[in-house]
Amino acid sequence: MLVIYHTLPTPIFYKGFQAKYEALCGGLLEQSEGTIQSPNYPDEYRANKECIWKISVAPGSQVALTFQAFEVEYHDNCGYDFVEVRDGLDLHSTFLARLCGYKIPEEVRSTSNHMLVRFFSDSSVLKMGFSANFVTEVDECADESHGCEQKCVNTIGGYKCECSIGFELHSDGKRCE
């Protein structure tokens, strides 16, 4: 933010100045990774705010959203303040999650290369808000090159092999015995 202060030559002299600002939020993010935060984070977010982030990563991949901090007014159905995540770029895209409270949520992953994150606050209780990272996620289990004998489980940044009930994973991390 840049503030430029000019004085005008007048016979009346005033001291100082007054300024007001408001944090902007939301936007279109076309990048492989990044961070999104509620307005004013880590201080309390403002009342009556709505922020919408539209995230796009490389085609053929997914968006993985991981929260580092989370404190949003709690209500049984998250009806007051909330973070909503959708699988696409608009508010009519498939619903993935509606989050509120004080516990850091599980990771949220899109099925395509697009994700919409919406933050909403009502007019009353204010909290710290949230900070979340998003990354480009590739499904390493999509083809057979992973080498898992029975089950491949995609994780952020990689994958892990698992075995069916009654089998144990071999020390090589791939075969089941």
Features:
about 180 residues, mainly beta, five-stranded mixed β-sheet, four-stranded antiparallel β-sheet, 11 strands, about 0% helix, about 35% strand, elongated
Q: Gist?
A:
The protein has 177 residues and is mainly β.
Please explain how this structure is put together.
Keywords: Disulfide bond, EGF-like domain, Glycoprotein, Hydrolase, Metal-binding, Protease, Repeat, Signal. It holds the Pfam family CUB. With 177 residues, the protein is mainly β. The chain is built from no helices and eleven strands. The strands form three sheets. It has a five-stranded mixed β-sheet with strand order 1-3-8-5-6, with no helix packed on it. The chain has a four-stranded antiparallel β-sheet with strand order 2-9-4-7, with no helix packed on it. The protein has a two-stranded antiparallel ribbon with strand order 10-11. It is elongated and about 90 Å long. The mean pLDDT is 90.
Q: Total number of helical segments?
A: 0
Strand order of the largest sheet: 1-3-8-5-6
| Helix share, percent | under 10%
| Overall SS class | mainly beta
Rg, Å, rounded: 23 Å
Give the SSE order as H and E letters. EEEEEEEEEEE
Give the biggest sheet: 5 strands, mixed
Low-confidence stretches: none
Indicate the topology:
Elements (H helix, E strand, L loop, with lengths): L26 E4 L2 E5 L12 E7 L5 E10 L10 E6 L6 E6 L8 E2 L4 E7 L8 E9 L13 E5 L2 E5 L15
Parallel strand pairs: 1-3
Antiparallel strand pairs: 2-9, 3-8, 4-7, 4-9, 5-6, 5-8, 10-11
